[in-house]
Fold this sequence. Notes:
The complex is a heterodimer.
Chain A lengths: L22 H19 L12 E6 L4 H13 L3 E6 L11 H10 L4 E6 L4 H8 L3 E7 L5 H15 L6 E5 L6 H12 L3 E5 L15 E3 L2 H5 L4 E4 L15 H8 L3 H4 L7 E3 L12 H4 L6 H19 L2 H5 L5
Parallel strand pairs in A: 1-2, 1-3, 3-4, 5-6, 5-8, 6-7, 8-9
Chain B lengths: L2 E11 L4 E10 L2 E6 L12 E4 L4 E4 L1 E6 L12 H10 L2 E6 L10 H14 L3 E4 L15 H7 L4 E2 L8 H12 L4 E4 L4 H4 L4 E2 L2 H6 L3 E2 L2 H17 L2 E4 L5 H12 L4 E6 H5 L21 H12 L5 E3 L7 H4 L16 H10 L5 H16 L14 E11 L18 E11 L2 E5 L1
Parallel strand pairs in B: 1-4, 1-5, 6-7, 7-8, 9-10, 10-13, 11-12, 13-14, 14-15
Antiparallel strand pairs in B: 1-2, 2-3, 5-16, 16-17, 17-18
Helix pairs in contact in B: 4-7, 7-8
Amino acid sequence: MTDLSSLPPYPHRHLLGIRDLSPFDIELLLDRADAAVSISRQSEKKTSTLRGRTQINLFYEASTRTQSSFELAGKRLGADVMNMSVASSSVKKGETLIDTAMTLNAMRPDILIIRHQSAGAAALLAQKVGCSVVNAGDGAHEHPTQALLDALTIRRAKGSIARLTVAICGDILHSRVARSNILLLNALGARVRVVAPSTLLPSGIDQMGVEVTQSMADGLKDADVVMMLRLQRERMAGAFVPSVREYFRYYGLDAEKLKAAKPDALVMHPGPMNRGVEIASEIADGPQSVIQEQVEMGVAVRMAVMEALLDPRRNRDGQNA
Amino acid sequence: MSITVFQRARIVDPSRGVDATGSVIVDGKKIVAAGADALNQGIPGGAEVIDCAGKTIIPGLVDGRVFIGEPGGEHRETIASASVAAAAGGVTSIVMMPDTDPVIDNVALVEFVLRTAKETASVNVFPAAAITKGLEGHEMTEFGLLREAGAVAFTDGRHTIANSLMMRRALTYARDFDAVIAHETQDADLASSGVMNEGLYASWLGLSGIPREAETIPLERDLALARLTRGRYHAAKISTAMAASAVSRAKADGAKVTAGVSINSLSLNENDVGEYRTFFRLAPPLRAEEDRLAMVEALKDGTIDVIVSSHDPQDVDTKRLPFADAAAGAIGLETLLAVALRLHHNDDVPLLRIIDTLSTAPARLFGLPGGTLKPGAVADLALVDLGEPWVVREADIRSRSKNTCFEGARLQGKVLKTLVAGRTVFSA
Lengths: 321, 428
């Protein structure tokens, strides 16, 4: 990696949410991630930054993309990575999160990556273990590395985040990606809009630092970035919206709706996509789409986060007690 | 039995509107006299005299909503351990909820509770029986037989009866026995997977919210049925300004309606949830500060009749979980009085009114002895230092479960002595 000693040490022990980060912390992580991108693009991708360190991925929800991204990030930094597959573990036998955490903690990992269906699970884990904890998504609360990789993708394409207009479209109510992004984009001075049917907006959305609209035309007007969110299948059939057909008609991103945005607007999606539900295939694969870049930036951001949390300078300062 | 004289105390007796310096004479199980002129015939010969200068005597608290784990959840709380906690909190009578395993929905269970209480408890324990068998909301329990056996009220505890016809029949039939139907209202569909008050705070935490309407929609239905049936209806634990105004309207219409509030809804709000603190996951959920203020106002203006602890012991197996997976409920017997006294120390609610809603009014509502210091009454009382500060420490909690919302809280007002039927059951 680039000369780390030139970067200031990172001040936090865990990454539980964007809410805990200052704009300075965010920029620092993005700078580190920028440097990590080049490692992944070399033919020799392995470094020794985290050699001898142990990383455990504890995923209570299936997630091919995020889990493999964390795994690859750890391996490229030289860490020993262990995946706890919840489906085949004692978790299925009724062991509580805290008991599992205590057990894993006794194996002395250096960093725990957790994905859990309940909001606050990562924070709960962080209270009980002696190592660093990274929230890889907790219920509808936060998904900080997703927001960071989105920011990195935007920053590399647009130069900076400040003063950009970003439209976040879709199921805001259940989305941890939306919450983390709203926090991060506001912290870095972007103008944030949310576009969704009212049944998919959380209570108090008008006080969350965003402009709210039910119209894609209004929401995307002159936008620099269009972020689409995934709509879970079980929410499409009458519970929150009446049908896929109607949802796509009003909220699905197609060429016509995208015209409202700036011609060079970026189209983003955290994946996995429902083609034809929230996004048309031609747009997902079109020239404005940076969905593949997001995946690449995901590995870089996760490398940066882990390396920042495990920065030996911080340990020497005793802050890792 | 011996005679005890509590001398030079401040005597607060809402049943007679008394707030005066004087004495209380207890002879055996009864109060002989209490008030400024209690000693106008001198100190009775052979009496033990306790100087209570600067201290206050109140009728023992009557807690109308207490969840206990016996039978079925003795690791959380037994009738005996709850009674020790109650005594330390100046609570001399508790109305025990039927949410046990098995449910208190038949005569044998009522008898079991009364027998266990007689053998193991130091305070009075009055069982409330289920309205419907198994708390399932479908079939009525034997109101008459249960009442004869000693059930003081009917309630489905934590459960809300969804079926309007069931509720109508319960109110109608209970009227024949002059029995109170006490009901917590939460619309299961509207509350859905909600775990805290709906609003901005829940949204940022990513937790599903429970709208206020989930409480008020079934409550409004119940109040309409109370008007229709003329049955006695008690809104057991209201938490919203909307609910208070609904109760107030029903009362103005002359319906036989009363209302209770949990001490938590009077003293805490949704911000106390902080970073997913599961001890603050309650039912009803902690609401916004405006709702808390509305509860205080409703307490003052008489819309709310009683304050309850809603004591609900939960162990680590149900609380050491992510917030949405944790059980609702907090213990409260030991802190009920001191937390309620915050309203007195802040000059929000007059002391006489606070003690009324903690003691006299609930005793009257459920037809229980106690709640008064008048001559001839059973000597259930508490000696309190209203001004003494103390800090709630987990290590000092007597309840078998430690899920208090007031860990580390600085409270003012300490119980020094609690008497049940003249017997000292707690002494600080």
